[in-house]
């Protein structure tokens, strides 16, 4: 089975972060180095007004997808190899978390794309894992936490990816949910980008709708409800769409 896996990784060109063929082990760093983002990671505009959303959709072909409730992370690949992972920070300067990114459950360490590739997405902890972590806290850990437990999955993942010891990150089952290629693959279609990331070995994003420039309001509401239910059924933390 090990040999078969090695052959498959060689044929496809990508290696999952938790592959048995990798003997990375756990890394401990003394501090998190600062990382300047050549392309700023800006925040999204938002609205709670259905009229605004309809107006936007009627102007341009759109992609409706989950807005993950976690921490924005950037991954850089060069020559098909993961060379750096960093937090968003203030959008201009983040922190180097490469040692932790390498133990995320679903980040490929090698990909078939051999140029330079800069990918952004969200680091998340699924709700069932979040509940499990809270349930298994020691008495000593509970004393250090306000209310005796972690407040929410977003705060937990933000602290987890910034741990100096990657073993802690590995034990908490952090996942990377990609939503954009910001350098390396030239296209003006987010949908095409996500399809390409699927080919490169990233977790396929099936929780989205491709929307033409006209749509009925009730159809849009149905899409909202469908995606929210998918997130709930998959234990994915979201704070919008």
Sheet with the most strands, sense and barrel status: 4 strands, antiparallel
In which order are the strands of the major sheet placed? 5-4-8-9
Q: Over the alpha carbons, how many angstroms does the gyration radius reach?
A: 19 Å
Structural class, from helix and strand content? Answer: alpha+beta
Give the distance, in angstroms, between the N- and C-terminal Cα atoms. 40 Å
Helices and strands, in order, run as HEEHEEEEHEEHHHHEHEH
Mean pLDDT: 91
- Count every helix, treating DSSP H or I runs of 4 or more residues as helices: 9
Record field, number of beta strands: 10
Parts with pLDDT < 50 across at least 5 consecutive residues:
none
Please estimate the helix content: 25-40%
What is the overall silhouette? Answer: globular
Q: Strand-residue fraction? A: 15-25%
Features:
two-stranded antiparallel ribbon, alpha+beta, 9 helices, four-stranded antiparallel β-sheet, 241 residues
Describe the structure.
The relative contact order is 0.20. The protein has about 240 residues and is α+β, with helices and mostly antiparallel strands. The protein has helices at about 1-10, 50-55, 100, 125-135, 140-145, 155-160, 165-170, 190-200, 215-235, and strands at about 15, 35, 60-65, 70-80, 80-85, 95, 110, 115-125, 175-185, 210. The protein is globular. It has a four-stranded antiparallel beta sheet. A two-stranded antiparallel sheet has the order 1-7. Strands 2-6 form a two-stranded antiparallel sheet. The chain starts with a helix and ends in an 8-residue tail after the last helix. It has nine helices and ten strands.
